[in-house]
Protein: Ascorbate-specific PTS system EIIC component
Amino acid sequence: MAILNILSKIWDYFATNILQQPAFMIGFIVLLGYILEKKKWYEVLSGFLKATVGYFILSAGSVGLINTFRPILVGLKDRFHLNAMVTDPYFGQNAVTAGIMKEFGRSFADTMLLLLFAYIINIVLVRFSKYTKLRAVFTTGNVQVQQAATAFWLILFCFPKLGHLPILIVMSIILGLYWAVGSNLTVDITQELTDGAGFAIAHQQMFGIFIFAKLSEFLENRAKKKGKKEARRLEDVKLPGFMSIFNDNMVSTSILMLIFIGAILVVLGPDYLVKAKFMQPGQSFIFYILQTSLQFAVFLAILQLGVRTFVNELTESFTGISDKWLPGSVPGIDVAATLGFGSPNAGTIGFLFGALGQFTMIILLLIFHSPTIVIAGFIPLFFDNAAIGLYSNNRGGFKYAMIMPFISGLIQIGGSALIATWVGMAKYGGYIGMFDWATVWPFFTVLMKFLGFVGIALVIIILVMIPQLQYRADKKGYFMITEDYEGWKKLHGKE
Structure:
C-alpha cells in the first residue's frame, strides 16, 4: 500500500504540474527528446525554454482571443434574457464537477485515474504501431482532463450500475483508443497543410477536421471531373484594386472583425456594456468597438508567433523519442498550432462562417422551443471552425472554407443540445460543445446505451478498424509520411 501511495503522489504531481500544463508538457517532451538525441546540455536547455515560452505565447494569444470575445457572448445571453447551457470545454468540465455526485454518486477525482490509464493505452497502441497502424501520441493535457470528465459522465449514463473497476477499464480503453485514433486521422492532412512540420492534432475536433477535409477534397475532385475549373485556395487569390488590402491577413482580420464584432456590440448597445462593466462610464463607444475588434487581430498574431516559436523545437526533438521508443510516431498537439500554417485568412473565414452556422442553429432552437437553449462558447466557435476552414481551404479551395465551417456550426449547436439534454448535463449549465463531442461521442453513447456490452464491443471495433482502413488506402506511404516526408511527396508526385 505504501508503494501505491507513493506512485499515486508521483502521478498526481506529474498530472497537475506537467500533464495539465501544456506548456510544460511540450517543454518536457522537447527536453526528453533532446536528451535521447544526446544533445549538448545548453542545446537541451535552449530547446526546453524556446518550446515552453513558445507555448506560453500561443496560450497568451488563445486566452486573449477568448477574453476579447467574452463580453459579446455574455452580453447576448444577458441582453436577451436567455437561461441557457454554454458550449465550452471548461463549462462542460464544471458541469461534470457539479453534477457527477448528484447524478451517479461518483467523485470527479475518478476522472484522473481514467486519464492515466487512457494515456497509457494511447502510448502502448502507438508503441505497437506495426500492428495497430497508430502514429500519434495525444499530448494536450488540459484537453485530456476535459474529455476524461465528459467521457466519464457519458459512459456512467450508459452503465450506471457498473462497478468502479469494470467501468474504469471500459472508459480507459474507449478514451485511449479515441485519443490515438482521432489524432492519427489528422496525421496525413496536417503533414500536407504544414509541409511536413511533424505533428498531428490532439484536440476536440479531430474526426471533424478529417471528415470536412476529405469531403472538401472529394467534392472538388468531383467538380474537376465534370470539367469545372480547379478551385483556388485563399492564399492563391490575388484581389484587384483596393480589395488587395485583404491579401494582408492582419488587415483582413481587422476589417472583418470590425464588421462582425461591431455589429453585435451595436445591438448590445453602450448602456448595457457600461452596466455590465465591460465599458467604463464616459468611454467612447466607437473607440471601444475599434479596440475590441482590433485586439482580435492582435491576439491572433500573438498566437501565430507562439506556434512559430515552439513547433520547430518540438518536431526536431520528437525524433529522439520516435527513434528510441515510438518508431514512426508524431506528437498530437493543440489545434491552435495549425493557425500558423496555410492561409491565415482561411482561419478567419472559417471562424466567421462557423459563427453564422452556430447562431443560425441557436435561432432555430428558440423558434422550435427546444428544452435546452444553447449559448455559443468561444472555444468551439473559433478553434473548431477556424481549423476546419484551414483544412477545407487546403484540400478543396476557398469556397469550402466557408461551406464546411457553416455546416460544422449547425452541427455543434444542434448535436450538443440533443446529447446534453438526453444525458442530463444541460441542467448543470455546460457541455464540451466541440465537434467530435456533438457527433462522434453522441453516436458512441447511443450504441452503448441501447446495445449494452455489444455497443461497447462495436465502439471498440469501429475505432480499431479506422487506422487499418487508412493503412490499406496507402500502404507504401502510410508510415513514410511521418518518417520521410520528402520521400512521400516524391512517391505521390507532390514535389
User: Anything to note?
Assistant: Residues 40 and 432 are 43 Å apart (CA to CA).
